[in-house]
Amino acid sequence: MLLGLHLPSLDDYGKQYGDARLFALMDQLTTRLGGLFRDTDICCQYRQDVLLVLMPNTKESSLAVLRSKLKELSGLIDEEDFVLNAFAWTLPNKELDADIDIWLENITGEIYAAR
Q: pTM value?
């Protein structure tokens, strides 16, 4: 499974509170996410406001539990305006056979369209 985590208010947060608080927020988020994922999961910052997490040992049937944990994690972040949107795609995906760059742009488009 590929998990997409979108932080839609991240840019506005940085503008309003400054870089120091933005870095503190990201550090807090990273620490909490580190406790949520397995050692086999790989997380990367794909865009400034989008994290992608490759979860090779997670099945689609685990999605409800994962969403619940992410919702709980969002509630633990010490910021009132914190928003975390989660998206998931099962792998393998037939669209990946064409071009990975196009597929990544398409799923990123899905994330931004959901705003």
A: 0.84
